[in-house]
TrEMBL record, chain A:
Annotated membrane topology: Multi-pass membrane protein
Presence of keyword Cytoplasm: no
Keywords: Cell membrane, Membrane, Transmembrane, Transmembrane helix, Transport
Entries under PANTHER family matching the protein: ABC TRANSPORTER PERMEASE PROTEIN, INNER MEMBRANE ABC TRANSPORTER PERMEASE PROTEIN YDCU-RELATED-RELATED
Main location: membrane
Coiled-coil stretches noted in the UniProt entry, renumbered to this chain: none
Species, as recorded: Pseudohoeflea coraliihabitans
Regions crossing the membrane: 26-49, 79-103, 110-129, 163-183, 208-233, 253-280
Family membership noted in the UniProt record: Belongs to the binding-protein-dependent transport system permease family. CysTW subfamily.
Protein name, UniProt field: ABC transporter permease
This protein's record includes keyword Transmembrane helix: yes
Taxonomic classification: Bacteria, Pseudomonadati, Pseudomonadota, Alphaproteobacteria, Hyphomicrobiales
Domain ABC transmembrane type-1: 75-281
Compartment list: Cell membrane
From TrEMBL, chain B:
Keywords: ATP-binding, Nucleotide-binding, Transport
Protein name: ABC transporter ATP-binding protein
InterPro entries: AAA+_ATPase, ABC_SmlMolc_Importer, ABC_transporter-like_ATP-bd, ABC_transporter-like_CS, Transp-assoc_OB_typ2
GO MF, any single term: ATP binding
UniProt cross-references to PROSITE patterns, sorted A to Z: ABC_TRANSPORTER_1 (PS00211), ABC_TRANSPORTER_2 (PS50893)
Transmembrane segments: none
TrEMBL record, chain C:
Keyword Cell inner membrane annotated: yes
Localization in the cell: Cell inner membrane; Cell membrane
CDD domains: TM_PBP2
Name of this protein: ABC transporter permease
Annotated ABC transmembrane type-1 domain residues: 69-257
Keyword Flavoprotein: no
Length: 293, 360, 266
């Protein structure tokens, strides 16, 4: 009797549980999903809609953006600065990452601490420091003049030079850290072998070490390039009004000019380019990394 | 008819199209130590996890004293378990670990203290009360885990390969401890392992798992002497198999032909003989003999010695049959039949048909 | 050869020089601001002619700066609590769940971290204007939560993946209700992860500028917004002292994280 009742209990209970199997354990992710969909996916999609609906339905916002020299100059600025920052960060970052791999570990630890400190120091604070350092009466110009290198103070701020310096400074850790990860996995026996084969240090560097580190350079470089494209604070403060970059343009279109159609279109262009570059990165490096590990 | 203490009745577990446990039936007596022995993926751990309540069976039931266990959630089943990996709570001391199940049962402070002390004594770790798990060896951690699992007097203790992470010497030491604790507490233990030595050393009975089924349940000697399937025969003890033809059968024993002309009658048969069926003859290494003569009744099988290994009290002789299969014979040191033999000699292999088995 | 430091010959001194130069380049601005904040020069002359705490005095006497700091703190704390709670639930689900598309869902949760903040800011700004929560604490919290949550989820999924679920199962078999087992066993075991999640969530909100600029109103500003708007007018040393306060809080919290991690290891 009791065993009969028991069987009906389990029989009734089991199918119900199995049905829920498709979403088992999803419950906990509900609040986060709700938050991200309502306040991220929906607003971004709404922005896309505004770019093709305001002021009238059609693609005229995109035509304006891509057709006017004013806006094209902003795109050019953005592209030039991002490219320069990427190159500078890679050129400076590579020897640092290389040194971090081979230096005595106490030194490595100190440099890592400095990298982390720099990364987590407030962006505004760091940018402010550069504004002061780079200004006409700033310490850099003063020092150079005292040393007799220049007669007139250089214009280091309120132009793209200032933006490039400030952003290279900010992006450096983002190149050094991934590059360090790649160089660390290179077997030093390979380079000893290169030396035994008769390669000079320079040949070993250009023909062995650099090619082996290339995936890391490409990954770090691409990441810095993408981040630079959408950077707002540093270009806005160090670039001055005449040298606008894309993120600043978007902010200005929306906040000062209240041109939602054009602002949304510009934001959407930035979003598409960013996602496309991430996709490239995932396609090239994501699969290789998976296969390699 | 008396109700068995623990009954696993037709338990089946499917993961999509994969059947992990295939209608397992088993009755366990109170106070028994029974091992689930089998290779990985044979369904033994899954069965244990169903008992613990971490997995739900697709079908079937588990009865404890005649009452189903499946309707009770894990934390109310009052079952003890020791896991394969170390599962002591890392932020609690040894004493607090053992006290944990008692605290959630709202025991009084005095009762908890007394019980923790008794459990530490049971696993011989007196004085380790305030240690943190991270400061203890693997063997000590598993002993604390055992104390924690037994602290609340569970009627059943589940052990899921608790010693697999330990080295051989330590393993044997703790196996001994488990035997002792089993005798002292009289708790019913279900013990999962893939190690036949461990199973033989510990168990009252062994359930041999293979591909989601229990092939056979019995004491170690039973499984060894009367294996129900070729798998059991291979898994328990050392075994030699020779292929043979079945030439006649009465259902329980068979007449077999080895090679071209040696016919042996009266070999216990497992499985169904078909027309001209092929079979596998099981011989135990220590139950064979070698001799230099064919003997008057011509019951010997001519084999050629390929290797002789001296292993202290035993001597292993590897020999090849005329059709290329090898057997390994174990003879006690000083056994007269092999004195003076060397590699390449031909000898006659003899065995008692009643102690051999043929599987189809 | 090139990966053996002691066999590099004179090259290693070049490398070392580059490392020192870059380290100085990275440290310089931070030290520079801290120094200027105690310098007496209104015009930010370096090195300062003499030392003063005048700028800190001005900073702490100005109710607008104090209100901004208070807002930063309040928003940061709310974001921290929500980010850890929501992130914890989501991480349990992502690590332990059996449903399909968990990887995709995790990628979706992390996206706000990698997209240009300005796009998110503009999109949220438009959305909040419509909802009427622009310039409110709610708006700030939601915006910051979106970029803090990825840090929380990364730290907590990582911690949960490193935690053996058998330990929690053992607690359940000991008689603890599954929820009690999570509270009394799993959470203490992943405490360092929870701590990291909390700190990084707070710092993300505390340091965030771009979203804050769009969410702010004249009556509701955070410390970075206040610095931003002051900065656009002039380079007063008060900003240096405000920045130093901002950076000091960050450094203290980062040191705490490092200490807790070290303590956990030993």
């Amino acid at each position: 009797m009791s065993s009969h009742a028991v069987h009906s209990i389990t029989a009734a209970k089991l199918p119900r549980r199995r049905k829920a199997g498709g979403l088992r354990g999803f419950g906990g992710a509900m609040p986060a999903t709700f938050l991200v969909i309502l306040f991220f996916v929906v607003p971004v999609l709404a922005l896309l809609l505004r770019s093709v609906l305001e002021p009238a339905p059609g693609l005229q916002n995109y035509e304006t953006l891509l057709g006017s020299t004013t806006y094209l100059k902003v795109f050019a600025n953005t592209f030039i600065v991002s490219t320069l920052v990427t190159i500078c960060a890679l050129v400076i970052g590579f020897p640092v990452a290389w040194a971090l791999v081979i230096m005595p570990s106490t030194l490595t630890r100190i440099v890592f601490a400095i990298l982390l400190l720099s990364m987590w120091t407030n962006l505004l604070a760091r940018t402010y420091a550069w504004m002061v350092l780079l200004q006409r009466t700033g310490i850099i110009n003063k020092t150079l003049m005292q040393l007799g290198v220049i007669d007139q103070p250089l214009a280091l701020v309120n132009n793209l030079t200032g933006v490039t310096i400030g952003m290279t400074y900010i992006m450096l850790p983002f190149v050094i850290l991934p590059l360090y990860g790649v160089i660390r996995t290179i077997d030093r026996a390979v380079l000893r072998a290169a030396a035994l084969c008769g390669a000079t240090r320079w040949q070993a560097l250009t023909r062995v070490l650099l090619p082996l580190a290339a995936p890391g350079m490409a990954a770090g470089g691409l990441m810095v390039f993408v981040m630079s494209l959408g950077y707002f604070v540093t270009p806005a403060l160090l670039g001055g009004t005449s040298n606008m970059m894309l993120a600043e343009l978007i902010a200005q279109l929306v906040q000062s000019l209240v041109d939602w159609g054009l602002g949304s279109a510009a934001a959407f262009l930035l979003l598409v380019v960013t996602l496309a570059l991430y996709a490239v990165q995932l396609k090239i490096f994501g699969t290789r990394q998976m296969g390699g590990r | 008819m008396t109700t068995p203490f623990l009954e696993i009745r037709g338990i089946r577990k499917e993961y999509g199209p994969v059947v992990a446990v295939h209608d397992v039936n088993l009755e366990v007596d109170r106070g028994e130590l029974i091992t689930f022995l089998g290779p990985s993926g044979s369904g033994k751990s899954t069965t244990l996890y169903i008992l613990a309540g971490f997995e739900e069976p697709t079908r079937g039931d588990i009865l404890l004293d005649g009452e189903t266990l499946l309707a009770t959630p894990s934390h109310r089943r009052n079952i003890g378990m020791v896991f394969q990996r170390y599962t002591l709570f890392p932020h609690l001391s040894v004493g607090e670990n053992i006290a944990f199940p008692l605290r959630v049962r709202r025991w009084s402070k005095a009762d908890i203290d007394a019980r923790v002390r008794r459990m530490l004594e049971l696993v011989r770790l007196n004085g380790y009360e305030d240690r943190k798990p991270a400061m203890m060896s693997g063997g000590q951690q598993q002993r604390v885990a055992l104390a924690r699992a037994l602290a609340y007097d569970p009627p059943i203790l589940l052990m899921d390969e608790p010693l697999s992470a330990l080295d051989k010497k330590l393993r044997e030491e703790i196996q001994h401890e488990i035997r002792r604790i089993h005798h002292e507490t009289e708790v019913t233990i279900l013990y999962v392992t893939h190690d036949q030595d461990e199973a033989l050393r510990l168990s009252d009975r062994i359930a041999v798992f293979s591909q989601g089924c229990i092939d056979q349940v019995g004491t170690g000697p039973q499984l060894y002497a009367e294996p129900a399937t070729r798998f059991v025969a291979e898994f328990i003890g050392d075994s030699d198999f020779l292929s043979c033809d079945l030439v006649g059968s009465n259902g329980t024993t068979a007449d077999i032909r080895l090679g071209d002309d040696l016919v042996v009658s009266g070999v216990p048969l497992h499985g169904r003989p078909g027309e001209r069926a092929r079979g596998a003859l099981l011989l135990r290494p220590e139950r064979m003999d070698l001799s230099r003569q064919a003997g008057p009744d011509k019951t010997g099988l001519p084999v050629q010695i390929s290797d002789i290994t001296f292993l202290g009290s035993n001597i292993h002789v590897a020999a090849a049959t005329g059709w290329g299969e090898t057997v390994s014979v174990r003879l006690p040191f000083g056994h007269q039949s092999i004195s003076g033999l060397s590699r390449g000699d031909t000898v006659w292999l003899r065995f008692d048909p009643g102690a051999a088995h043929v599987f189809t | 050869m090139l990966l053996d430091f002691h066999r590099l010959g004179w090259w290693r001194w070049v490398l070392l020089a580059i490392v020192i130069a870059v380290s100085a380049f990275l440290l310089l601005p931070i030290i520079f601001i801290a120094t200027l904040s105690f310098g007496s020069s209104q015009w930010l002359i370096f090195p300062p002619p003499s030392w003063t705490t005048r700028w800190y005095g001005e900073l702490f006497a100005d109710p607008r700066w104090l209100a901004a700091a208070f807002n930063s703190l309040k928003i940061g704390l709310i974001v921290t609590v929500l980010s850890v709670l929501i992130g914890l639930a989501a991480s349990f689900s992502l690590v332990r769940g059996k449903f399909r598309g968990r990887e995709t869902l995790k990628a979706l949760f992390l996206t706000p971290m990698i997209l240009p903040v300005v796009v998110l800011a503009v999109a949220l700004y438009a959305f909040f204007l419509r909802l009427g929560i622009n310039g409110t604490v709610t708006g700030f919290v939601i915006a910051h939560l979106l970029v803090a949550l990825p840090f929380s989820i990364l730290a907590l999924t990582n911690a949960l993946e490193g935690f053996d679920k058998s330990v929690e199962d053992a607690a359940v078999l000991c008689g603890a209700h599954p929820l009690e087992a999570k509270l009394r066993v799993t959470l203490p075991a992943i405490a360092p992860g929870l701590f990291s999640a909390a700190i990084f969530s707070f710092l993300t909100s505390w340091d965030e500028v771009v979203l804050a600029i769009f969410m702010a109103s004249p009556t509701l500003q955070t410390l970075p917004v206040r610095i931003w708007s002051t900065l656009r007018q002039d380079l007063t040393p008060v900003i240096a002292s405000a920045s130093t306060v901002l950076v000091a809080v960050t450094i203290i919290l980062m040191l705490l994280v490092a200490l807790v991690r070290k303590g956990m290891k030993s």
